[in-house]
Amino acid sequence: PGLGTAWVHVADPAAFIRPDTPLDLEARSRGLTLHLPEAVVPMLPAVTTPLLGLGLNEFSPALSFGISVDEAGEITSVEITPSIVRAARLTYEGASARLEESPFAGLRRIALAFEARRRGAGAATIDLPEVQVRVRDGRIEIRPVASLPGRAVVENCMILAGEAVARYGLEHGIPLPYATQDAPDNPLPAPARTLSEMFSLRRTMKRSQYRSAPAAHSGLGLDAYTQATSPLRRYLDLVVHQQVRAHATGAPLLTITDIVERIGEVEPSIS
Q1: Crossing angle of the two packed helices 235-249 and 256-270, in degrees rounded to 10
Q2: E strands within the chain?
Q3: Looking at residues 175-204, what average pLDDT do you find?
Q4: pTM > 0.85: yes or no
């Protein structure tokens, strides 16, 4: 018995961007999309998001992750397939208001069980106020970002997909860039509850690193993790998609040496 299967669909630029093509090399030189108060400097050409972003056209190419989870929040099976999806966009506010409905209620149960399992494994919980800073017509705008239950469900599903892809890669011998984080040298003696404790907790945490071999991600409470949900704005996510898609279609895979080279090339721009 289990809680069911969560399907996480992610825009799939790897359907069109092959390794070492001019567009791949340009994305690699940038490393990620840079968000500034005055502007956004995209990793990929500005036309890419309108063409490939889920829900921006009637049908969109996607890489779809089917992840089955049991009552303890453990992954029991993973299915990954290239797909064409028909997505409808929904705000966090709209999703939060419908969490008692199907299919949102099922996703929430999976997300809560997964989060509980990660917390039991020592995942850090940092709940600090968030704001968006924009400069419009020479004026600075600062807007708070509401902490909504719908946002938490999406965040946990994204992390769930990252663990699922890492496990899938290990099981099938697919070289991937793994996101890792060493445990703090001086962890706090008790869980952080106040704002000051949250700041203190964040100060104890070490910088995350990318590696070609799996290692623990202390902050997420996971033994293996790879980022796979933002290939339009993070180059190593795009590499993950290229690798998983190549495995699914029988195309040649990048080698571990190729992965190490790509990590080394993008690290200066993403650190």
Answers
A1: 160
A2: 4-11, 34-35, 40-41, 60-69, 75-85, 130-136, 139-145, 178-180, 209-211
A3: 91
A4: yes
